[in-house]
Fold this protein.
Amino acid sequence: MAAQLQHPEYSPGLQGIPAGITRISRIDVERSSLTYRGYDVHILAEHTPVEETAYLVLNGELPTKAQLDAFTKNLVSEREIPSKVYDVMRCLPTSSHPMAWLQTLVSAVALHDPESADNSHDANIRKATRLFAKMGTVVANGYRVVHEGKEPVAPDSSLGHAANFLYMLKGTKPMQSAADVINTSMILYMEHDFNCSTFTARVIVSSNSDLYSGTVGAIGALKGNLHGGANEAAMEMLLEIGSVEKAHGFIDRALAEKKKIMGFGHREYRKSDSRVPILKKVGKKLSEDLGNMKWWDIAEILEKDMWDAKQLFPNVDFPAAWLYYLLELPIHVYTPIFAVARTVGWSAHMIEQLDSNRIIRPQSIYEGQMTRDFVPIEER
Ligand code: COA
């Protein structure tokens, strides 16, 4: 009989296992708070344009006025994507999900970046800035071209990052309140420690691969509904509920059927998600301004029932879902918007990884067959 292997301790899903050191963001589980480079995300979300927080996350310090102006100017000048990437867009199947073609298009953008293989710190900061600038264009124009059969819209240099994204997506200049919602949600979506997609990106570059490869892998990780895909799944669920009357009792029925409620729960937070109160505040104001409290009311019922049933709370994807719906954005761009914002966090982490790299290569616990005698095919 084969000897039993001695198994080291392990934690399914790597729960509670530190997998590296970072100086980029910190989740304080006790206080349910989140800081980027030491600054409270609430303050950043309420007081900065997304460009300013992006600068902070990438560079480690808040910019001076001159630095922010230069960074913003750089982002504006880098928004357009190569014409050959538009050619790729036009070949994509309309049935594909934007998160699937986003991987293809980021790969295509990489092929046109002469610095794509340069892993020096400065080149990586330049690429991260370019990538953040271009991601909004790729998502907005990708959606127009692939799913709506429309022509791309050229970026508008007079608009900020959030407003320009909405402008390219919809083809008309957005109201300030709509741009503000996108600005806030992008700041909240920008960075979140060693989450699944960020860790994926760090693993990829740890082989001395490049920022674009890490980003493409991270997009694949974000797509799943246990991660970024939850904002789309949450909206599908809300639409299925459809009314305040039907919201009552929905949670109990769904839990009885062992269903996961999308947009609820979190691996790290225990009592609440630090980002939710800010989005809810913005969402309540938008609902009042639009005279449409339906989604707010349904969400409040689900939140109360979920807490009563399982002490589980909404995560950032839950309010983001109905907020984006109120803005009349297509549901399949919700997760890509998350990707546009998280590009900054991914890049910061990949740069941090590459700046003092050691390849990430954990162990597994082997539970398969031990050494077996080979039997030639004609004897099996
Ligand atoms: N709906 C119903 N039950 C949930 C739940 C949810 N959204 N989230 C967690 N739970 C339950 C699990 O069923 C499990 O219960 P059990 O111990 O009785 O079996 C327990 O809570 C632990 O959940 P688990 O999935 O093991 O936690 P995790 O840390 O591995 O996963 C998430 C964290 C975020 C993936 C998980 O909460 C989830 O799937 N949420 C829904 C998807 C989502 O919103 N993702 C976005 C995250 S920002």
